[in-house]
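ok so for the tutorial part 2 we go from a plain amino acid sequence to predicted structure tokens. step 1 is just haveing the sequence, like this:
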Amino acid sequence: MSVTTDVSVAVAALSQGKLCAIPTETVYGLAANALDPAAVARVFEAKERPADHPLIVHVASAKDVAQWITNLPQWAMTLIEQVWPGPLTIVGSRTALASDAVTGGQDTVAVRVPSHPIAQKVLNEVKANGVLGLVAPSANRFGHVSPTSSRHVVADLGQYLDTHQDLILEGGECQVGLESTIVLAVDEFPVILRPGAITSDDILRITGIAVAESLSAVPRVSGALDSHYSPIAKVVLITDPAQIDQTNAGFLALVEIDTPSGVHRLAAPRNLEEYAHQLYSALRSADDLSLETIYVIPPSGTGLAQAINDRLQRAAY
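step 2 — the prediction. this is what the tokens look like for a chain of 317 residues:
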């Protein structure tokens, strides 16, 4: 494994069937040519990811979505025109380009356009080489805490990437820190399959259409299992610091909540954006400190708070 800051080196590797962890605005993704079956298979192998768990295809621009998704409703076109590049994934009816390995054997495929400038440069340059999209699930062991820095990628996948002469493209810390919002776009109403930085209020404001509460059957998507985003330490959600009854423990809450005596403060975010940005690093730091328990007071509210709570509830499952 080699950590590089040279985009051209990463592009050459991806175009030749190698894996490369790349930065996005959400988390680092383990990228591979979405049309190279052997490369896609190695993504599953590296992450120890279940074979029926679908991947998200990352493309350079909204113009590229038609190669992967067919019959998008007008509200979805309006949404992607306003949000892409950005932390939004659209799930729609797949074209013939999307393989069963990418879709998990489903009739739908997930596509997004990341906004991180390095990811954008990579996607545009591999596209010039004939690579029409990159799968890029979070660059960590399946079910573990997502990586928001290259150091996190090394900790989880460094040995595998080194053995197979794959790459990590250095891009600093991820700005958002939570995975993209996943929206199902096969009907007249949007359905959020995974909450993220793009909220139901954003979707209503942009499209004029309210998000549907639920459907009887929805596609499988990344990050939707009951237990996910989990550190080694046990995550316990509380409402009051007085509920803490251990000393070899970490504590995560908004800055206005004081740190109880005898525990390690893992982060003290000042607002929801900082909470999202610092969440995964805080969970990982507890494992670095060999703590047994992480006590978390989740933020209240809607929008981004819901996305943060979604990740915390799965981490604590």
